[in-house]
């Protein structure tokens, strides 16, 4: 059964508004809500810093809802040591009563790294950090005691207590890189998420992930597959939501009639998607989200 969720951006909004939006999303019958991890807005502009911090808002999401899974797509490995992140996610799992998921990625928003003096290494190094970091997270979130010795991270008989409510708190990898990201997901992740690509692109990357699973001798069914999609019933809505990146995200934006949107979702499901998330950002268009929910009979 396909899970439908909403990925809510934290830019250009307030905590009070987010709480109202999250509660309405839950009322509309969605099964998942996630936050992103940015210090600046997602425009990439060096003067656009109106964005709430992710861990705090992930915790607020857990406390503001009662039924939905509470995810993060995705935390940047460069912003927090994985042990610190594991402790935070454990607390969020306890706050939510066992509804937390966490996602991790290599990071890309150089403007944020530069502004805050965080080292922004080359792609290979960031991918190496991601591969080590997810192993640390798996140990701390899934096992009682973890030791790990890597180039970037080290754990020595590390404990994460009290434990999460969930025995195996799901860990997602975000990104579409076929050589490293999907390989890391195949080896270590419980879920994989990619944004704004067409059904054909999703099918291709899904097949690549399956091949990496075969190489890792891992059952591909052990990894949930999710895609983040825009929802814009008009060109004006698309431009209002995504601005300068509208053409970039267009292959992964739902539009047209209700029937056309349902058909498009079916194409993603046929391509291997277990979960479809609507990427929502301020100003929040809840009318379109209500129309989407009604079309799919979610509530």
**Spans where pLDDT lies below 50 across 5 or more residues:** none
Give the topology string: H per helix, E per strand: EHEHEEHEHHEEEHEHEHHEHEH
Structural classification: alpha/beta
User: What CATH architecture label applies?
Assistant: Alpha-Beta Barrel
Strand content: 15-25%
**What is the CATH superfamily classification?**
Luciferase-like domain
- CATH class (first level) name: Alpha Beta
Mean pLDDT: 96
Largest sheet: 10 strands, parallel
- In CATH terms, what is the fold-level topology? TIM Barrel
What would you say this structure looks like, in words?
The model has no long low-confidence stretch (mean pLDDT 96). The strands form two sheets. Strands 1, 2, 3, 4, 5, 8, 9, 10, 11 and 12 form a ten-stranded parallel sheet that branches. Strands 6-7 form a two-stranded antiparallel sheet. Helix 2 (54-64) packs parallel to helix 3, helix 3 (82-96) crosses helix 5 and helix 6 (181-188) crosses helix 7 (199-215). The radius of gyration is 18 Å and the shape is globular. With 299 residues, the protein is of the alpha/beta class. The protein is 42% helix and 18% strand. It contains eleven helices and twelve strands. The chain has a single domain, classed as TIM Barrel (Alpha-Beta Barrel). Helix 1 (15-27) links the parallel strand 1 and strand 2 (32-35). 43% of the residues are buried.
Keywords summarizing the entry:
single chain, 299 residues, alpha/beta, TIM Barrel, ten-stranded parallel beta sheet, 11 helices
């Amino acid at each position: 059964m396909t899970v439908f969720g909403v990925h809510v951006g934290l830019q250009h909004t307030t905590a009070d508004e987010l709480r109202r939006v999250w509660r309405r999303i839950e009322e509309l019958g969605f099964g998942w809500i996630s936050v992103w991890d940015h210090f600046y807005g997602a425009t990439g502009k060096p003067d656009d810093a109106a964005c709430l911090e992710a861990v705090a808002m992930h915790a607020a999401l857990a406390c503001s809802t009662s039924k939905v899974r509470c995810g993060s797509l995705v935390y940047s490995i460069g912003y927090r040591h994985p042990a610190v992140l594991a402790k935070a996610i454990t607390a969020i799992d306890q706050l939510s009563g066992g509804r937390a998921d966490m996602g991790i990625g290599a990071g890309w928003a150089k403007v944020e790294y530069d502004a805050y003096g965080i080292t922004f290494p080359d792609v290979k190094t960031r991918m190496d950090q991601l591969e080590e970091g997810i192993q640390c997270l798996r140990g701390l979130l899934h096992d009682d005691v973890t030791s790990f010795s890597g180039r970037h991270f080290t754990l020595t008989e590390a404990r994460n207590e009290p434990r999460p409510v969930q025995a195996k708190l799901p860990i997602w990898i975000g990104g579409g890189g076929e050589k490293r990201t999907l390989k890391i997901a195949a080896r270590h992740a419980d879920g994989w998420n990619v944004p704004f690509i067409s059904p054909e692109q999703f099918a291709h990357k899904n097949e690549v992930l399956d091949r990496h699973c075969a190489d890792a001798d891992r059952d591909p069914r052990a990894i949930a597959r999710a895609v983040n999609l825009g929802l814009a019933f008009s060109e004006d809505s698309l431009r209002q939501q995504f601005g300068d990146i509208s053409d970039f995200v267009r292959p992964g934006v739902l539009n047209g009639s209700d029937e056309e949107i349902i058909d498009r979702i079916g194409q993603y499901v046929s391509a291997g998607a277990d979960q479809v998330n609507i990427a929502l950002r301020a100003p929040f268009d809840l009318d379109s989200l209500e129309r989407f929910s009604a079309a799919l009979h979610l509530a």
